[in-house]
Design a protein that fits this description.
3-stranded antiparallel β-sheet; 5 strands; globular
C-alpha cells in the first residue's frame, strides 16, 4: 500500500477552515461525527468521486480511484472540517509514518486552532 498526501483535499480543507466552515469539537468526538457508510454513499451518488475525494487527506495510489479504498484520512462530514477528524488523521498518519500527510494535517490542526502566522 502506497499512501500519499491528497493535495487537492488539503487545499480544500484549508479553504473551508479559512471560510469558517468548521466544527471545533473534541478529539474523541470523531467516532460519532465521522460520516457513516450510508452518508458516504449518498454523497457519492450526488457528487461523484472527484468531490468525494476532496474530503480525504490521503490516497492509496495502488487502489482504483473509483473505490472507497483509494481514499484515506477523512477530516469532515462533507460540509465542515471537524477538528476531531483532523486530530484523528494527525495521530493515524504519524503512527503509520506517512510524513507528508502528518505534516499537512499538523498544519491544518494549527490553522484550526489559530496557531498559524
Amino acid at each position: 500500500m502506497t499512501v500519499k498526501l491528497n493535495k487537492t483535499a488539503f487545499d480544500h480543507a484549508k479553504s473551508l477552515v479559512r471560510k469558517g466552515q468548521t466544527a471545533m469539537d473534541e478529539r474523541d468526538d470523531w467516532s460519532e461525527h465521522a460520516p457513516t457508510a450510508d452518508q458516504e454513499n449518498s454523497y457519492l451518488d450526488k457528487h461523484g468521486w472527484r468531490e468525494y475525494g476532496q474530503w480525504y487527506l490521503g490516497i492509496d495510489t495502488e487502489m482504483d480511484e473509483e473505490t472507497k479504498g483509494h481514499y484515506k484520512f477523512p477530516y469532515g462530514d462533507f460540509r465542515r472540517v471537524h477538528r476531531c477528524g483532523v486530530i484523528s488523521a494527525e495521530s493515524r498518519a504519524a503512527q503509520n509514518d506517512y510524513d507528508d500527510i502528518t505534516k499537512a494535517v499538523k498544519e491544518l490542526h494549527e490553522l484550526l486552532d489559530g496557531d498559524h502566522a
